[in-house]
Amino acid sequence: MSRAARKPKSKSLKWYRDKAWELTSKYVRLREADEDGYNRCVTCGITKPWKELQAGHFIPQARGNAIRWDLRGIWPQCLRCNCHLGGNGAEYTCYMLDRFSRATVDDLRRVATTTRIMRRADYEEIIDDMAARLARIALNPGEREPTETQEWQRNHVS
Ligand SMILES: [Zn+2]
Question: CA 137 to CA 31: how far, in whole Å?
Answer without folding.
Answer: 7
